[in-house]
Protein: Helix-turn-helix domain-containing protein
Amino acid sequence: MDDAQDSLQDLLPPELVRILDALYQEYQRSQAPLSLARLSKRTELRMSTLRRFLTALEEAGIAIVVVNDDGTGNAILTVAGLKLHG
Structure:
């Protein structure tokens, strides 16, 4: 990781870094969205906390989040989000 990424991670909340890392790793593995349930488990964040951060990422154009009527859903990084990571 270069110095710019190190300083960016120092500025971001650790929860946000965990979410970005999990979404990036899933994209590298499968290029498919990650379910919110799995993302919650991988980041060890409560669903309410996760959804709050995902809303901010979506508003910033960093992630696409789909939430179904039954509360299930998924998230994936946008091109801008992928560039942020690496």
